[in-house]
Write a structure and sequence with these properties.
The chain has about 250 residues and is of the alpha+beta class. It is built from four helices and nine strands. The structure holds a DNA duplex (12 and 12 nucleotides).
DNA sequence: ACCCTCCTGTCA
DNA sequence: TGACAGGAGGGT
């Protein structure tokens, strides 16, 4: 049940009381929760919730219904014998409610899906003059890459972040595709990257930070070529890269 | 490409 | 006190 003293997202919440959570999955950058139809309306009453955590959002599952006050609590679902909390310090997180899963599907392609291959990537890049780093952060073509992994992917692919997206040659595009898949896969397998407060639903921290080659390492040595890692700002976001081995 | 906004916290 | 932070949407 949503506690209406708390706000999360912009839409008014539909009735969730009495429903069962059928499935929880990732769709692009969002956590999607499928609720069963209400018993009184066994058909046509499905309900989906897409949670975008943004910068500081966390979904916390508590096996016991503790009611201790929690800082930054924005929403609470009471479950049988437990609770699901949405904690979000900066309040950037959003809830999107939908009647079917399709409404939560982003327009872009998940880089880990088979739908993305060399040909499709070339089409997506097109002749864009946007720097490849900022291109990767868009969610309308490839879905799921954020500021950490954009820098990591380009470092692994040995591509400079300022290169125009449409100007990559076939070999560079192939490296970009492989790197994107490898980094994203490893990030998911490692539960993300924790700097200070990120935790998953069970309270576990991410473990990807041990793999970071360049992100947040301005001034340090590149692990590949020992060049100096630089920090630059692109589109108001920090980019980390090595000018010695990324071009 | 630039700028701004949302919001709260940490660190130098 | 100011810079910066895992994101994204808006404006010019």
């Amino acid at each position: 049940m949503l506690d209406d003293r708390l706000r999360a997202g912009r839409q008014r919440e539909p009735v969730v009381a009495g429903r069962t959570i059928r499935a929880v999955m990732r769709i692009g950058k969002r956590v999607a929760i499928e609720f069963s139809p209400r018993e009184s309306r066994p058909t046509g009453d499905a309900l989906w919730l897409g949670v975008h955590l943004r910068m500081t959002g966390r979904l916390i599952w508590l096996p016991a219904p503790a009611r201790a006050p929690r800082r930054h609590l924005r929403a609470r679902f009471a479950l049988d014998g437990g609770a699901l909390l949405f904690i979000d310090t900066r309040r950037f997180g959003t809830f999107d409610w939908a009647a079917e899963r399709e409404a939560l599907e982003p327009h872009g392609i998940d880089p880990l899906s088979a739908a993305l291959d060399a040909r499709r990537l070339r089409e997506l890049l097109g002749d864009s003059s946007q720097p490849i780093k900022t291109w990767l952060l868009r969610q309308d073509r490839l879905v799921g890459l954020g500021n950490i992994y954009a820098s990591e992917i380009l470092h692994r692919a040995r591509i400079a972040p300022l290169r125009p997206a449409g100007g990559l040659d076939a070999a560079e595009r192939a490296r970009l595709l492989r790197s994107t898949r490898a980094i994203l896969r490893r990030a998911i397998d490692n539960c993300g990257t924790t700097f200070s407060d990120f935790q998953d639903a069970s309270g576990d921290e991410g473990a990807y930070q041990q793999y970071l080659a360049v992100y947040d390492r301005g001034g340090e040595r590149c692990p590949r070529c020992a060049g100096q890692i630089r920090r630059e700002v692109q589109a108001q976001r920090s980019t980390y890269w090595c000018a010695e081995c990324q071009d």
